[in-house]
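Hi U.,

Before I forget, here's the chain from the pilot set. I'm dumping it here mostly so it's searchable later in email.
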Amino acid sequence: MAPTTTYSWLTFCAIALLVFAADCAKPPNIIFILSDDLGYGDVSISPMVNRTHEIPTPNIQRLADEGMRFLRGYSGQVCAPSRCTLMTGHHSGHCTVRGNDGSYSPLLETDRTVGHVLNQAYETGVVGKWGLGDFNTTGYPLQQGFDHYIGQASQVSCHNWYPGKIQNNTLGNYTIEANFKASEAACGPHHSKCTWANDLFNREAIRFIQEHGGPSAEKPFFLFFSTTTPHTGFLAGAKTQWAVPGPYDTRFPQYDAVQAAFAAATSAQDDFVGAVLDELKVLNIDDNTIVFFSGDNGPDSHPFTEFDDPGPFRGKKRSLHEGGIRQTIVARWPGRVAANTTTDHLFTFWDFLPTAADLGGVPAPEGVDGVSAAPVLLGQADKQKQHDYLYWEFCDYGRVDGLLPQLYDPGWIQAIRYDTADGTTGTRTEWKGIRTHRGPMLLFNLTDDISETTNVSDKFPDIVEKIATFMEQAHVENRFWKSSRNASDRCCGSCFSHKGCKAPCVQLNTSIGAHSPIVDSLSPPLRFLSDHYLLGNWHTISVQDSDDDIGIASPPDVNVRLSTARNQAAVHSPSDLCHHGGTMQAASDPKTGTLVVTVSQSPMVFSSSSPKCDTVKRGTVHTDGNRLFLLWGGDTSTLDQSPSHKSSAWMKPEFDYD
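Structure:
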């Protein structure tokens, strides 16, 4: 990690005065609340939306009534790349994470996040979904400038709404006891016997604010509160993809099960916003806290016929049409940001880092793509710098039709937003260019055609040429996220494995004893286990979710047992799952399905003895003196959701979570 510079209050004031005419009061607390898969039309604050049926969002409306709405706000197109732009200040042509997800290509030591920037003067924390680097990688929040983290770091594990384990600062597998064997039946009516991840995250966000925003706080705080709602969420046996608990689940009886569950998830998000605003008032720090709110990309996964989720825009999540990237972004700071105001200033996710730096009185890293919106927020629009253009890129071989279908071809897609002004009248024209595989350009005049219906590229060849030039300028090749130049030249769109994926993505060199992003990030380095070398009191950890650390795909009853006395590791599972054996000494009890593998030999082989299994996995057992790690890699099979290079870690919890 790059060294952190500490600045005095006089330095903060000097920087603030250089950037915009600010006084030298204590910099504000900064909160960014990010909702997952929230559609442009799913909240009451967005214009141009059919409100025949709507989900009440009074707290998000309160945020807008007491703050400023960016009517031309833009996010990324899908979860992980969107968060990368938000956290690093770079658009997707420069970001480290350009596809889903950060397990394959986590943020690097050389990346500089909002956490790094504000950590010079702020207490920094993340609560909830991260997606930019798993535990024990360089992308994990604690390696990216944040002092605190509680949540689900993995992009895929976030799909489990009732996780048996989460990440709790330095604990990679912190157990949520209430969610052991979580299912629709086990959780009971309204899921009251289990812990919904978003309720947990909400409590932790409030706890963070209380601890670092109270009267004894020595410095301001920055909180990135990232929920997983209304994104779909897994619970075994649930009737819909939104296993929302009480009290939210009974709020919308007028709709069918799917729409009612989605509306409940959105309503819960509104409650979380309200909880934050209420706590700021209780602590009397309302006037010195700026709160941002946005969705992370367009809507997804449910019919858009009830709530006009994408609004007037074409496309949805994963699309580079407006429906995949357009947001109404809100910022509220009582007494400093004018209440109940709107602006048509282009504000993007990659603008947040320089904006937060200006508000906090600290310097932003050089070379970011974002432009600080602090002047327009503080009523100094005449001093506001503008973007030359906005840029996105993404590889996707599917079709992402919303209420209006996708018009560009699948593949490696680039998009540009570019404004021009008439030299005589000053009239603004909003242009949108999209092309696939660097091929022919689709050009839309958003000023007259907000739904991107008519391609006008043949009428404005000069604009097409300008946008093509911008696209070449904006893209820097990334070896992990290969671009393409024609339909036969495949690009890399998604990879969910530490080991990497086959071409056109990168198959990482993570064979035994070779470089590994997990192994290399551990301190002290891992050592091979030898006879009688298991250390400490190892505890059983529940394995429930589809991307669990040992690669079992959603079994109903799986746990790991370790015996220091016999120097053995055991994987307990139903007898019809794959059994472990091979070159290591192993035994399987056909009645219980308990699999005992001695760890005194390396390498070990996980092989198949069930018709469901069709692969052999080779790996080794390691320790860093405190944790046990199983490292392996292999092809896709029933044991894994994707080609995998995963780690399993067991550690005694430092405290219990209620």
